[in-house]
Amino acid sequence: MGIGTDPGSHRTSALPKMTQNSYWKDIGQRLTYIQEGHKGPVIYDFIDPNCPYCHGMYDEEQPLIKAGKLSVRYVPVAYLLPSSTPEAAAILQSPHRIQALQHFEELAAKSFAAPLGPQGPVGLPQAKALPQTLHALRVNMAVLQSTHSMGVPAILYEGKNGTTGLMPGMVSRGELLTIIPNLK
Q1: Residues of 150-159 as b/e, b for ≥16 C-beta within 10 angstroms?
Q2: Which of 59, 74, 82, 156 is deepest in the core (most CB within 10 A)?
Q3: Beta strands, E only, 108-174
Q4: The pTM is what?
């Protein structure tokens, strides 16, 4: 059984060939993420702090998380702007990652509503990235690149049939609701 796509969705794409169980288990052990929700199927959502589409995706996922229909593991990467690394570090190095992510998203909503400067959104929390944080961001980015995704947001999921799929780009709440019944 190879890694592939959900036959019901035109938005998914094939992933590298590995056995289903080894790929899904491997990424779960390698990635550094912040999980919101503990009910419903688990998806990985790759995000860059300076991506307005990632912020939009966060907003689309929140009602599903609150309703217990979905658990999201937010996987920070840092490549869009120079400020991406210190912003991702501020979230990952926080002793309360979920609250840091939520606070960051609240600020991002206001920041993305205003005109962006050359360095991206202004006023988002930043921290000097520790060596272990830099390593985690590199690993997260390597896993994202292994999916052949061309950017963020990108959602990685495991289907009930054991396939691992990818939904690149902004995904609507309606699209998420369509795939949730097919997720493990």
Answers
A1: ebbbbbbbbb
A2: 156
A3: 154-158, 164-168
A4: 0.85
The full length of the chain comes to 184
Tens of pLDDT along the chain (184 residues) come to 223 333 344 444 444 444 455 677 778 889 999 999 999 999 999 999 988 899 999 999 999 999 999 999 999 999 998 989 999 999 999 999 999 999 888 888 776 655 555 555 566 789 999 999 999 999 999 999 988 888 999 999 999 888 888 999 999 999 999 999 999 8
Nearest to 10 by CA among 168, 177, 173: 168
Mention every residue, 6+ apart, whose C-beta is less than 8 A from residue 89: 126, 127, 128, 129, 130, 133, 137
